[in-house]
Design brief:
single chain, mainly alpha, two-stranded antiparallel sheet, 9 helices, about 70% helix, flat, ABC transporter, transmembrane helix, ABC/ECF_trnsptr_transmembrane, membrane, transmembrane
């Protein structure tokens, strides 16, 4: 189902959003300071506004990411390596100045890394991404199309699980032992998935989906100045985050910890 977001920024190649999110993530995982994360987060806001992502989408997905970031921060707050003044101690829990600073840094870092990854892909479909990977990045068509087919089959697993449950109950299989029923049904689902995958691979091969060395594509995937500008701005975010953290003296390369 196509959302309204897809109409607000048509034509953006998914490869550009993938590379942009990757550049920002790589830059931010190199350090654990809060300055670089806050800088990146501040520079990402104009990007989201420029892409005209709906406020409702930003609020919903942002709330999920915020909860995940808060849980990560809480773990580091309670179980981070103690340093400085210890404010509270209980068994393995140590809340100190160091753990508080680390929790804040991790909270901002998770937000700065996850928000672009979530919001930039709000309107990307697996088919569009596969077209971009095959045509723009020149990844092997056999791998790309196979991964796309497998991804589209994932949605059928839930339906298969439900139907297998109905069939097993109708036959009275493992009706009194829930654990045995779950393991037996899971094994049946695995066998069913392998059989479907084998049939799908044979059908795709027969229709030329794995043509070598070249193949044709039904939908052309273009890469223009907008995609280049998006990647360039992502690079600016990454470089600015590192530069500001180094200038502030908070940069801590993870390899040197």
């Amino acid at each position: 189902m196509t959302s309204l977001d897809a109409r607000t920024r048509p034509g953006l190649n998914p490869v550009a959003t993938l590379l942009t999110a990757a550049v920002i993530a790589v830059a931010l995982v190199l350090s654990v300071d809060w300055v670089s994360a806050l800088t990146a987060l501040a520079l990402e806001i104009p990007l989201f506004l420029a892409l005209r992502i709906r406020l409702r989408t930003v609020a919903f997905r942002g709330a999920v990411v915020t909860v995940a970031a808060a849980l990560t921060a809480l773990t580091n707050l309670l179980y981070g390596e103690p340093s400085g003044t210890v404010h509270w101690h209980f068994l393995l829990i140590n809340v100190s100045d160091g753990s508080i600073e680390l929790a804040g840094a991790m909270f901002l870092r998770v937000l700065a890394i996850a928000l672009p990854s979530v919001l930039l892909f709000v309107d990307v479909t697996p088919t569009e991404l596969a077209d971009g990977l095959g045509q723009v990045l020149k990844l092997p068509a056999r791998f790309v199309i196979g991964a796309l087919a497998g991804l589209r089959m994932v949605g059928l697993l839930r339906q298969d699980w439900q139907y297998l449950g109905y069939a097993r109950r109708a036959r009275g299989v493992a009706d009194t032992n829930r654990i045995r029923r779950v393991f037996g049904q899971a094994f049946a689902l695995l066998v069913f998935a392998l059989r479907r995958g084998s049939k799908l691979a044979t059908a795709m091969e027969a229709r030329g989906f794995g043509a070598h060395p070249t193949r044709t594509w039904a939908r052309p995937s273009s890469f223009g100045w907008r995609e280049a500008a998006l990647i360039a701005y992502g690079t600016v975010i990454a470089a600015a985050a590192i530069a500001v953290a180094v200038a502030a003296g908070t940069w801590q390369f993870i390899g040197g910890r």
